[in-house]
Amino acid sequence: MLIVFTSSWWALLLRGIAAIIFGVLTFMWPQITLTVLIFLFGAYALVDGIFAIFAGIKSHSENKRWWVLLVEGIFSVIAGGLAFVVPGITALVLLVLIAAWAIVTGAFEIAAAIQLRKYIKGEWLLGLGGVVSILFGVVLLINPAAGALTVVWLIGAYAIVFGVLVLALGIKLRGLERRALKMTPRTV
């Protein structure tokens, strides 16, 4: 596990930089950010729904539960259509999805940090990132009516804080990889 993390320090660095850039852009263009998030979700839900409907219809003769895909597809198309027609409702649903995502990923980040503590010092950065993720998700769930722009700003602040923490972990792992390379004998 240590080899995976130290050899891919650069991926953590890029992930942190991308999160920071996303956070800064969110503060610069909050209305655009919310609108884009809603319409991206709407487009995804429409496309996903259409494919699910076709898959359900196509598997009609081969699968007893073909109707499950059909129903899923119909609901997905309805959700995608609502995203374009009534973006306010979509913003609330999207807020709940983002909150759930932050809580789940935060839990996994904390679990990964606990595993990493056996191998490196500084794993607390990933653990702290997990705690920030969980707190972010809880704040979104507690006060969903806080306003769409506030949510966008929370997303931006979260992205910047998380990006800085992941960036710091990537830098720390880079140093660990360099030390490990100096200690290993070279073969010709």
What do you see in this structure?
- The chain is mainly alpha-helical and 188 residues long.
- The chain has seven helices and no strands.
- It has helices at residues 2-7, 9-28, 30-58, 66-85, 87-116, 124-142, 148-183.
- Helix 4 (66-85) packs across helix 5 (87-116) and helix 6 runs antiparallel to helix 7.
- The longest helix has 36 residues, at 148-183.
- It is globular.
- The two termini are 27 Å apart.
- The model has no long low-confidence stretch (mean pLDDT 80).
Q: In angstroms, what separates the terminal alpha carbons?
A: 27 Å
Strand count, sense and barrel status of the largest sheet are: none
Q: Percent of residues in beta strands?
A: under 5%
Sketch the topology as an H/E string, one letter per element: HHHHHHH
Give the structural class: mainly alpha
Kindly report the oligomeric state of this protein: single chain
- Helix segment tally: 7
Instruction: Name the shape in a single word.
Output: globular
What is the alpha-carbon Rg in Å?
A: 21 Å
Helix content: over 70%
Low-pLDDT stretches:
none
Main attributes of the structure:
7 helices, globular, mainly alpha, single chain, 188 residues, 0% strand
Strands, helices and their partners?
Blueprint (H helix, E strand, L loop, with lengths): L1 H6 L1 H20 L1 H29 L7 H20 L1 H30 L7 H19 L5 H36 L5
